[in-house]
Amino acid sequence: MIPFKTTSGQVVKLASIVVEMKRAGLDDNFIAAAFELAHTDQGVFDLMDLWQGATDGSNRDDVVADIQESIDDYRDAPPSPLKKPYVNFDKLDDVAREVMAKKAKLRDLIDRHGGVSAVAQKSGIPQPSLSRMLNSPSMPRRSTLYRIANALDLPEHEIVTEWSR
Amino acid sequence: MGLTQEIRAVEGRHSLSARQVCQLKFWGPAKQGNVILHPGHKMKWHHGPGQVQLRLPVMSLSRSAFLCEAYVKDSSATDQRKMARFKTHMNLIAQGRYIHRGTL
Q: Is residue B100 part of a domain?
């Protein structure tokens, strides 16, 4: 693999995307993290380029959620390879059911605190990322759950599930 | 949703076994448009043209193959986004910054 390093032209392009993201109302911390990563990670650079080229709101939302995933990947990545226990194939359906049950409770909590938009704003998690997390059966990131807990001043036991990563 | 769940979802919708879902063009280089993403590969499953398309990006490094994040290819836009995500995964794996949950 060849390490990615942005050219001057790409840096200028990133700057124009950053301005457009700011105009679109995206959170400053999100924009700054994406901008920084895009200098050394071609995947994040590509996603920012795709965001600018997206023609409708839902496509842009998908890209924002993907950029946030990449930011989280870097933030949560261990310094060296880390082995975690595997999940049995036969247990996957049970795990997905438990995850969705926990997320239904989480959605109730979020609704009681003003809904997805309000909690996204309070926690600094982009709204498309929060919506994707609530609607998919994938294991939520512990770091995301903590951001929600801190924003809503909730104790750990109310928000963290056994099935988190 | 993980790959195994995706296969089960396909089975549920189309009454197919996982074996039947597998097609001939199962394995190929990972591409973004016409650009090949070294050292990436893609496993592909589909149920006929225009039907459910499953993808699993795989990175080869030294003597290991890393199975990354599976997805349903429902549009070229999705494929572009997921290949961008795969580049990030390859970058982190190359740096040794990854979590694994078992070896085949």
A: no
The CATH 1.10.260 portion of chain A extends over 89-159
Query: Would residue B102 count as lying in a domain?
Result: no
Could you say which of B5, B81, B101 has the minimum Cβ distance to residue A47?
B81
Residues of A within 8 A of B89 (CB-CB) are: 43, 73
Q: Domain A89-159 - what CATH class?
A: mainly alpha
- Please list every residue in chain B whose beta carbon sits closer than 8 Å to the beta carbon of residue A41: 87-88, 91
ipTM of the complex as predicted: 0.91
Write out chain A's pLDDT in tens, 165 residues: 668 889 999 999 999 999 999 999 999 999 999 999 999 999 999 999 999 999 887 899 999 999 999 999 999 999 999 999 888 889 989 999 999 999 999 999 999 999 999 999 999 999 999 999 999 988 899 999 999 999 999 998 888 888 888
Q: What proportions of chain B, in percent to the nearest 5, are helix, strand and coil?
A: 35, 40, 30
- What chain B residue is nearest to A94 in terms of C-alpha separation? B5
pTM across the whole model? 0.86
Tally of structural domains, chain B: 1
CB contact under 8 A, A1 and B90: yes
B89 Cβ under 8 Å from any chain A Cβ: yes
- Where in the sequence is the domain holding B33, given as residue range(s)? 3-94
Distance CA(B28)–CA(B40), nearest Å, equals: 9
